[in-house]
Design goal:
67 residues; mainly alpha
Length: 67
């Protein structure tokens, strides 16, 4: 039971960090190419971490929402 709670806590933390990074990325001007690249990379890293903990469920849901 404790492991499940720990995983849920980690997924929640990663999700909200990902959301903050996405907002920051959306607010960056196109001219800030280096900063945009860093944010995009971090966004992908967070997505991969969430997917690792959810068996890929997160990305599947994100793709459904954007379709």
């Amino acid at each position: 039971m404790q492991l499940r709670d720990d995983i849920l806590d980690e997924v929640t933390k990663l999700y909200f960090e990902r959301l903050r990074v996405k907002i920051e990325l959306d607010e960056l001007p196109i001219e800030a190419a280096k900063k945009r690249l860093q944010k995009e990379l971090r966004l992908e890293e967070l997505t991969a971490s969430i997917d690792a903990l959810t068996g890929g469920y997160f990305s599947k849901e994100v793709r459904k929402d954007s379709a």
